[in-house]
Amino acid sequence: MKTYQHYINGALCDPASGEWFDSENPYTGEVWAKIARGNAEDVDRAVTAAKATFDGEWGATGPTARGKLMVKLAEIIEREAVRLGEIEVRDNGKLIAEMGAQTKYLAEWYRYFGGLADKIEGAVIPSDKPGIFNFTRYEPLGVIGMITAWNSPLLLLSWKLAPALAAGNTAVVKPSEYTSASTLEFMALIEEAGFPAGVVNAITGFGMEVGAPLVDHPHVDKIAFTGSDVSGQKIYEAAAKKIMPVTLELGGKSPNIVFEDADFEAAVMGAISGIFAATGQTCIAGSRLLVQRSIHDKFVKRLVEVAGVAKIGDPMSTETHVGPVTTMPQYEKIMDYINIAKSEGAVCVLGGDAYRGAEAKGKQFVQPTIFTGVHNQMRIAQEEVFGPVLSVIPFDTEDEAIAIGNDIVYGLAAGVWTSDIGRALRMSEKLKAGTVWVNTYRAVSFTSPFGGYKRSGEGRESGKESIKEFLQVKSVWIAQQTTAANPFIMR
Ligand code: NAD
After folding, report:
1. DSSP 75
2. What is the structure's pLDDT at 489?
C-alpha cells in the first residue's frame, strides 16, 4: 500500500491531523493508497512557505532562469509520462490509451510557457503629460491556490501551474480527494528539475477542509479552480470577500450539432467521441446532440450500432473503449439522471442501466446510454450529468439549432458538423461558447485559449494571453525634471 504525504517547502510531511484517507481504484474497487488528510494548519504552513520564497529566492530568480527550469521539467515529464499515466488510470479509471498520451503532452505546457517567461513585456506609453515618462510593468500576483477536479488531474494542474510559474508566482496545489496521487508524484519531478523549495507545494484532502481554508487564507493572492459550477460559485463568493481574482473552469452541457450536409460517418464518430470518450466524464462532453430532422432517424440508428459494440472494461487495456465511472457518488448521480430522463418521457434507445458484465470488476460501470425524444427544457437536457448519457434533440433550421444550442446556462464548448463553410462561420459566430469545433471535437492545445462563457467559468487557460491571468500591470510615472508644481490640482 502506497502512502502519500503532503509536500511543503520542498519536503514530504505528515498531516497535522495525523489522519489519512483511502484512494480507491475505480476499476477494481480496491484501496491502493493512503492519502494525507489536510486541514487549515497544513494549508497555513504551505502558504507561508510559498510566500517566503515569493518574497525571497523565487522572487529574485529572473525570467530566463524560470523558463529554463520549466523546460527542464518538461523533459522530466516526458521521461516519466508512462508511469504518471498509469497512476492516473489507477485513480480515475480513464483509459490508458488517453491518459498515457495526455501525460506526455503535459510537457508542452511547460515548454510553451517556459519560453514565454522572458517575453513578458510592458510598454512605454506615449504620454500627454509634458516632462513625465510613463511605462508599464507586468508583475506576478504572489501565491496562487490551485484547486483541481478528478477527471484529468495533471492536465488541469498544468493549465494553471505552467503560466503561473512562468509569470513568477508560487503555488499551493490541492488536487481532488479522489485523485491525489499523481499530483504528489508530480512534486518529485518539480524537485528534480531544481525549483527552489516552497515554489510549488501540495496539500491533499477534502474541499471544505483544505480547499476552503486555501481560498480564505489572507496570503493567497488568487485562486485558479477547475470543478463544478456549484463549488465554483462558493469559491467566487469567498474570493469576493477578499477582493481576490479567480479563474474558474466549470461545467458544461455542450451542444454537438449535426446538419444534413455533414460527412455522415465523421459526424457519427464525432458524436460518439463527444459523449462516450472518457466515459462522458469531461467538462466538454457533447451531451446534447442536436440532429437535423431529415437525417435524425438514420443518424440515431448508426449511433446505436457503433456505441452498442463499444468495449466496456479494464481501463488499463488498450482494447477498452469505455471504462468505469471514477467515483461512487458520480456513479449514483449518473444513475439518478438516467431515471430522471425516463420519468421525463425521454426514449432510451441504448443502455439505460448499470453495466454488470464480467469485465466490470468494480461496481461503478454504466452502459453507454442514448435518449431520443428529448426536449431542450427537460432536466436531462439542461443539467450536467458528467457521464456516458447522450440526449438527442431534433431541429429543422439553422436558426433553431442556434436557439436550442444557446438556450442553456452553460457555455463551455460546442460542435458543428457541416460541409458548408458559410454555415460553419455563421455557427461559430452565433454559438455562445468558449470553444467551437467544426467537423472535429475535443481538440485542445497549449497554444489555444480554453474557458467558458456564462456559467461555465471566468477567465481563460492556455494560449499566450492566459499568462496575463497570473500577472498584474503597474503603471510607472517618472518626472524627467523635478518641479515644485501646484499640489492642489491633478497633474
Ligand atoms: P467539485 O467542484 O466537486 O470539486 C473540484 C475540487 O474543488 C476538488 O478538489 C474539491 O475538493 C474542491 N472543492 C469542493 N468544494 C470546495 C470549496 N467549497 N472550496 C474549495 N474547494 C472545494 O468537482 P469535481 O466533481 O471534482 O469535478 C467535476 C466537475 O468539474 C464537473 O462539473 C466538470 O464539468 C468540471 N470540470 C471542468 C473543467 C473545465 O476546464 N472547465 C475541466 C474538468 C472538469
Report:
1. H
2. 85
List, in sequence order, the alpha helices (H) in 206-247: 212-216, 229-242
Q: Which of 70, 75, 7 is nearest to 43 (CA)?
A: 7
Q: At what angle do helices 153-166 and 96-116 cross, to 10 degrees?
A: 0
Q: Does domain 2-250+456-476 have CATH number 1.25.40.10?
A: no
Whether 249 is a known active-site residue: answer yes
Does the C-beta of 215 come closer than 6 Å to ligand 1? yes
pLDDT tens digits along 131-169? 999 999 999 999 999 999 999 999 999 999 999 999 999
Residue 309 near residue 276 (C-beta atoms within 8 A):
no
Topology of domain 255-438, CATH: Aldehyde Dehydrogenase; Chain A, domain 2 (3.40.309)
Enumerate the domain spans of the chain. Answer: 2-250+456-476, 255-438
Check residue 487 and report its DSSP letter.
T
Q: What is the pLDDT of residues 259-279, one digit of tens each?
A: 999 999 999 999 999 999 999
Q: Is the CB of 384 under 6 A from ligand 1?
A: yes
Q: Which tens digits make up the pLDDT trace of 428-445? A: 999 999 999 999 999 999
The Cα 35–Cα 23 span in angstroms is: 7
Mutating to test ligand 1, I would choose from 154, 172, 176 the residue with most ligand atoms within 8 A of its C-beta, which is 176
Identify the pLDDT of residue 329.
Answer: 94
Q: Which amino acid is at 366?
A: V
Alpha helix segments (H runs only) across 364-411: 379-382, 398-406
CA of 112 to the centre of ligand 1 (A): 26
Q: Which of 44-58, 311-325, 398-412 has the lowest mean pLDDT?
A: 311-325
283 catalytically annotated? yes
Q: In what order do the strands lie in the sheet with 2-4?
A: 2-4, 31-36, 20-24
CA-nearest residue, atom 41 of ligand 1: 249
Q: If you measure from the C-alpha of residue 153 to the centroid of ligand 1, how many angstroms do you get, rounded to a whole number?
A: 11
Q: What are phi and psi of 415, to 5 degrees?
A: -120, 145
Q: Of 283, 384, 461, 469, which one is the catalytic site residue?
A: 283
| pLDDT per position as a tens digit, 315-354 | 999 999 999 999 999 999 999 999 999 999 999 999 999 9
For ligand 1, say whether the CB of 180 is within 6 Å of any of its atoms.
no
